[in-house]
Amino acid sequence: MENAEPSSAARNVVADLASMRTAYLEIEAAIRENPDAEAAFGLATQLRELIDELVGEAATFRALMADRVFRSEDMSLAELARRLKISKARADQLVRAAKAAVAEKS
Q: Which among 23, 70, 71, 72 has most CB atoms closer than 10 A?
């Protein structure tokens, strides 16, 4: 399935990711233009805090998607690692993180 044409939804995700990058650059530029240095620092702090939250959420989401691959077929952790081009230890970490995230939601 690696050589398959991307779906419309996948193309939208790629475009949306590019839009996120553009939005970040626009926010950064707006903060730089703020004439009040302390206010600019406060806004930069808010930006950093939001990005930190998103990084955590994205890491959990990535783990959930790795677990989805793992569960989609009857495969070992070694096979998952090979499929995702990561180490077996990392594959195990992702699967464990996904299980913890699911348990936390329950």
A: 70
